[in-house]
Amino acid sequence: MIKYKDNIPIDIIILLGVLAALTPMALDMYLPALPIIAIDLKTSTTQAQFSVQAYLLGYAMGQFICGPLSDSYGRRPVLLGGLTVFTIITLTIFTTDSSFVFNSLRLLQGISGAAASIITLTLVKDIFKREKFARTMSLISLIMLGAPVVSPIIGSHVSAWFGWRYIFTTLSGIAFAALIFVIVRLPETHAKEMRQPFEFLKVHQNYLTVIKNKTAFCYMLSNAFALSGVFCFLTSGSIVLAKVYKLTQQQVGYMLGVNVLFSFAFTFSNSQLVCKVGSLKLLKIGLPVQLSSCIAMNIFNFGNIFGLWGLILTVGLYIGINTSNYSNALACALHELPENIVGTAAAFSGVLCFAVSPLVGGLLALFPVDSTKPMVVGMLLCSVASLLVFSAASPKGKVVI
């Protein structure tokens, strides 16, 4: 087992960034091709949209399993197994010819993809406390944010040149390369003396420990609602842009990339500020900013102000600030819990986020996609819920630095 004192080597940071990016790539790379996938699989656009929810549901299930397993058997074995299955399942999607099989494989892809995300979090938490954890996760996010910038663009062009199925061939190749690098370079960070036997009763007790900690639970639930707002856009955004604003696949890809420019700016700022200001104080600023972006988004939309760019810029602000809010809220939550259940705690946070998000996204998918109004109202409601839950995380006036 290896511990780092102050900084993780840059090649490990890059690797963790790629691992963290697998799920954004699995979600973003094929979004511009959703309308074409629906036609090719002879199904409705709404049914094709549910492939997003299928992945997220699997992702939640996978975290629920992978977190406790990593607490018992270490981080590396769980990561290697997850990456191997993810690579195989993603390649298999190339052969699908029905929406049922496509969505089923997306579910399995989400389950296996969860290992990469959960191990990234737990590995960093094994090494660092709250503020340095948030800073390191911000640095990893800077690498990861390249995925949402590049993925929609790559996906739209691969789909246009070779067909949508080759999007998943590309993703499988990336996952395989990450698997090889993990085998060669990534150390184990979870000490054997910190591991617990994998027993269902013990896992159940650990999850109860997380749930009963009101402060940690509220931070996690606040994150879940805020992330649900992001997935309101992921569920409907590409289709709305194509149908309402008449954008081509390539143009939709570029518009989705704008979100990551905001995310990069906020994540970089957070990495520079969090050790000086504190993750909790930054969160108390970030959540009201996120709500303000939603209020402006709804005013612009219902008032027909600024058109496409009014929507793109306010959505970008929401998604951008959410990247730093997410790291800070997770740092605060994990700080409240015992170190020997970090994997379980991180898994519960992920399960909460990616159980609530598909539910909200699924409800949104029931509304017509010939208007932006259901999407922007959904994002506003999610932001309000996030701020209200966060306000209940600790007694009034209590500030932890």
Helical coverage, percent range: over 70%
| CATH architectural grouping | Up-down Bundle
CATH topology label:
Growth Hormone, Chain: A
Query: Order of helices and strands, N to C?
Result: HHHHHHHHHHHHHHH
Characterize the structure shown.
It is a single chain. The two termini are 30 Å apart. 81% of the residues lie in helices and 0% in strands. It has a single domain (10-186, 198-391), classed as MFS general substrate transporter like domains (Growth Hormone, Chain: A, Up-down Bundle), CATH 1.20.1250.20. The model is unreliable at 396-401 (pLDDT under 50). The relative contact order is 0.16. Helix 5 runs antiparallel to helix 14 and helix 10 (214-243) packs antiparallel against helix 15. It has 401 residues and is mainly alpha-helical. It is globular, with a radius of gyration of 20 Å.
Features:
401 residues, mainly alpha, Growth Hormone, Chain: A, 15 helices, 0% strand, disordered C terminus
Short description:
The chain has helices at 10-28, 34-40, 45-73, 75-92, 99-127, 130-144, 146-162, 165-185, 200-212, 214-243, 249-277, 279-302, 307-335, 342-365, 373-391. The chain is an all-alpha fold.
Topology:
Layout: H1 10-28, H2 34-40, H3 45-73, H4 75-92, H5 99-127, H6 130-144, H7 146-162, H8 165-185, H9 200-212, H10 214-243, H11 249-277, H12 279-302, H13 307-335, H14 342-365, H15 373-391
Helix pairs in contact: 1-5, 1-6, 1-7, 1-8, 2-3, 3-4, 3-5, 3-10, 3-14, 4-5, 4-8, 5-6, 5-14, 6-11, 6-13, 7-11, 10-11, 10-13, 10-14, 10-15, 11-12, 11-13, 12-13, 12-15
